[in-house]
Write a structure and sequence with these properties.
By secondary structure, this protein is mainly alpha-helical. Helices cover about 65% and strands about 0% of the residues. Mean pLDDT is about 85; it is low at about 355-373.
Length: about 375
């Protein structure tokens, strides 16, 4: 049965165009092709990146935070109360006024004391400013080196300047060493992000982040096996170009260089809109949707690859809405935070202001932004 399943999974018509078989993609005559077995290297690469990230955050990001005077706020711990703790963990972190009154009867506490307990307990769950700074610094550093590496790998390739060259000789396109290392580092990075989801800063678009990481890994894995590597490298470079600015703006925001962060955010917005809403759909998806049909009839891999690109495009549209909303607030009103994660609360916050804060994100100003990869 397992053999039958394996034969079905690796059926050539799922992955390759008509008249092309796996035997055509075996190494010969000095030509080297991508192999599915090479994807196993992604796991050790991801683990290595997690170790590098730990060392980076400990020995580079933390000292840099000290130099810039980035400090976590002193938080008052919530009082020990089993009734409220059980409600907090099992029911909701944000009780309504009716819930507060009910809890007052159970605990014998006044309303104000119960409200303060929930504020302090919520604050205990929120990551500190130094953690957010370290995380943004690591991502900014990786995206910078990945983008530079991608440019060095692609600047002299003909398919960068003529997208029809992406499909010249497809799928019998030899694998270049620069493509191998670029793919391995990017896939290892996104796999490490999946591993670190449980302890990274959680935002309101957590589910979208999971979908994005899984869609990216699926897309890169499929493009590797089916030899869609040329278009895959273009997609990665397009994404990295704006992610550098996003994470850089966050870093400067946490360091309180607000004007510089605002300027970078404006540039990030422009780059994001151009690369994700213009170049990606009208150049790259057009390249994968139209040009292949001039060479071979559509097959499963053709549809699957384009569907995954459309999933990414839907996420781009979602994040573009968030970014546009931030830009609007930035220009016409006061933007108090990043619309994706909770802001810390003070004991003195009235309920109305508390609810307003809970709808914003960490960081102040226009810097902690929607993370569109």
């Amino acid at each position: 049965m397992l053999q039958t399943v394996g034969e079905w999974i690796w059926w050539e018509r799922l992955w390759l165009p008509v008249s092309v078989s796996w035997s055509d993609l075996e190494d010969k005559e000095g030509r080297v092709y991508a192999k599915a077995s090479q994807l196993y290297a992604t796991l050790p690469c991801a683990l290595c990146l997690l170790v590098i990230r730990y060392l980076f955050e400990r020995y580079l990001a933390t000292p840099l935070a000290n130099i810039w005077g980035i400090r976590d706020r002193i938080r008052l711990p919530a009082e020990q109360n089993p009734i409220l703790e059980k409600y907090f963990c099992g029911q909701t972190r944000i009780p309504t006024q009716d819930d507060v009154r009910s809890l007052c009867k159970k605990t014998g506490w006044p309303e104000r004391r119960v409200e303060v307990w929930f504020k302090r307990r919520r604050n205990q769950e929120r990551p500190g400013l130094r953690k957010r700074f370290s995380e943004a610094s690591w991502r900014c550093a990786f995206y910078f080196f990945a983008f530079v590496g991608g440019i060095l790998a692609l600047y002299d390739k003909p398919w960068v300047y003529d997208l029809r060259e992406v499909w010249a000789g497809f799928p019998k396109q030899s694998l270049l060493p620069s493509q191998y290392w670029f793919y391995l580092s990017e896939m290892g990075f996104y796999l490490s992000l999946v591993f670190s989801l449980t302890f990274d800063v959680k935002r309101k678009d957590f589910k979208e982040q999971v979908i994005h990481h899984m869609a990216t890994l699926t897309l890169l894995s499929f493009s590797w096996i089916s030899n869609y590597i040329r278009i895959g490298t273009l997609v990665m470079v397009i994404h990295d170009s704006s992610d550098i600015l996003l994470e850089g703006a966050k870093v400067l925001n946490y360091a309180k260089y607000h004007r510089t962060a605002n300027g970078i955010f404006v540039v990030f917005t422009a780059v994001f809109m151009v690369t994700r809403l213009i170049i990606f759909p009208f150049w790259l998806i057009h390249c994968t949707w139209v040009y292949p049909l001039e060479l071979f009839p559509p097959f499963f891999g053709y549809y699957f690859f384009n569907i995954m690109l459309l999933v990414l495009q839907l996420l781009h549209l979602y994040w573009a809405v968030l970014i546009s909303r931030m830009v609007y607030k930035f220009i016409f009103s006061q933007l108090e935070g990043d619309d994706r994660s909770d802001e810390e609360e003070d004991d003195s916050d009235p309920p109305k202001e508390r609810n307003s804060k809970l709808s914003h994100m960490n960081g102040s100003g226009a810097r902690g932004r929607a993370n569109g990869h």
